[in-house]
Design brief:
By secondary structure, the protein is mainly beta. The protein has a single domain (2-174), classed as Roll (3-methyladenine DNA Glycosylase, Chain A). It has helices at residues 2-5, 94-100, 114-120, and strands at 9-14, 17-29, 58-63, 67-73, 82-92, 137-140, 151-154, 171-174. The two termini are 21 Å apart. It binds a DNA duplex through β3, β4 and α3.
Length: 186
DNA sequence: TTATTGATTGACT
DNA sequence: GTCAATCAATAAA
């Protein structure tokens, strides 16, 4: 799923305005058996409850005391697997995004990270559990095809707390794309 | 009840 | 390269 989401378009409707961005980086989190997942060992709490929804819903969590991250829930109900959307290329409503994210000086930095993406597209816990085929949030196939050899794979970012899973190759991104979160990391 | 730690970012050396 | 911001969930006591 993480692989397939690359090149897809994430849409966010806020009243009459519509924002869109092309996904260029995503990470897979494998539920109960993944020590780096919020659902490791079957953990379940109000925070991660929407991970247990059926595929096609949003899981939005608050982290480091100040940022939100958006996930696509992928499995059947009660199986808590999800894909973290880490970076995207702004397509529509770029001026609005710039207003929402004044710290970004370049367009390529508007959504070049999971927290940044949520700031640029005004995504917070209010959207947690929402359908990804809904009014405020939805995803469509991209118009630009992604070639198989365009997709690079690496360990996930920031999972140092789970040494056992630290090297798992579950981060997918478009090789050389300037909108990914870390240009130095291959 | 208290302590630790993040699926991060931005400022700074 | 280092580090602080800032808080909720989880772990430890």
């Amino acid at each position: 799923m993480a692989r397939d989401l690359l090149g897809c378009i994430l849409w966010r409707r806020i009243g009459r305005t519509l924002l869109a961005a092309r996904l260029v980086e995503a990470e897979a989190y494998l539920g109960a058996n993944d020590p780096a997942s919020h659902a490791r060992r079957g953990l379940r709490s109000p925070r991660n409850e929407s991970m247990y929804l059926e595929g096609g819903h949003a899981y939005v969590y608050f982290t480091y005391g100040m940022y939100y991250c958006l996930n696509v829930v992928t499995q059947e109900r009660d199986i808590a697997e999800a894909v973290l959307l880490r970076a995207a290329q702004p397509l529509e409503g770029i001026q609005i995004m710039q207003k929402l994210r004044p710290k970004a000086r370049k367009e390529s930095d508007l959504a070049s990270g999971p927290g940044k993406l949520c700031i640029a597209m005004d995504i917070d816990r209010d959207l947690d559990g929402e359908s990804l085929d809904g009014k405020r949030l939805f995803i469509t196939r991209g118009t630009e095809a992604v070639a198989g050899d365009e997709i690079a794979v690496s360990p996930r970012i920031g999972v140092d707390g789970a040494p056992e899973a630290a090297h798992w190759p579950l981060r997918f991104f478009l090789a050389g794309n300037r909108y990914v979160s870390r240009r130095s990391v291959k």
